[in-house]
Design brief:
Blueprint (H helix, E strand, L loop, with lengths): L1 H16 L1 H24 L2 H20 L5 H22 L6 H26 L1 H10 L1 H30 L8 H43 L1
Helix pairs in contact: 2-5, 2-7, 3-8, 4-5, 4-7, 4-8, 5-6, 5-7, 6-8, 7-8
Length: 217
Amino acid sequence: MKKKSAFQNVAIAHFNEHSSLYVFIIVLFLMGVIFGAVIVNSLSFTQKEDLFYYLGQFFGQVSEGNLSPSYDMFLQSLQHNMKYIVLIWILGVSIIGIPVILILLFLKGMVVGFTVGFLVNQMGWSGFGVAFVSILPQNILIVPVFIFITTLALSLTIKIVRRIIMKNVREPLKPIIFKYVFSLLISFLLLSGAAAIEAYFSPPLMKTVIGDNFIKK
């Protein structure tokens, strides 16, 4: 109980310290999601048909069980997300990295919004069901990790800038850097869980939801 209480205290202190950054970053991510969904409506009929054709081929592979081995999918998902996270993490120690970090987060939201928006636009409620089982499960972990790392990256950059501009700042950087490195390890563990969900949990659900009617369509 004491360990749990200590963890809760650390988490509360963390969120209190970075509350304004979390609000800003979450709003930015949601703006990316909305922007991605809006882009779907700007596509031409031909573009939508072409995209849906390739999507239909993917659905056919899912229905027939012709996807890559689950372990390969796990590695691909983990590598893709870790590359993204590591890039944001590295930019956190760069003063000029702030705009790039924000752009990367916005693009992540835009991709999620576009994918869900396109599925719903083309398939209605059936598309929403596909998005629910193919996109939501892993993103329950992925999105918070992105927001968490982005917040820490921006916070570290701001502290470095303050240290350079305000010469009288004497906040030790060593414990901050240690926590920053530890955050990358936590992200790796959470993204491993997300990759496992995407590789082993989502495909069977997608196969169930897609059904023969999607393949015929």
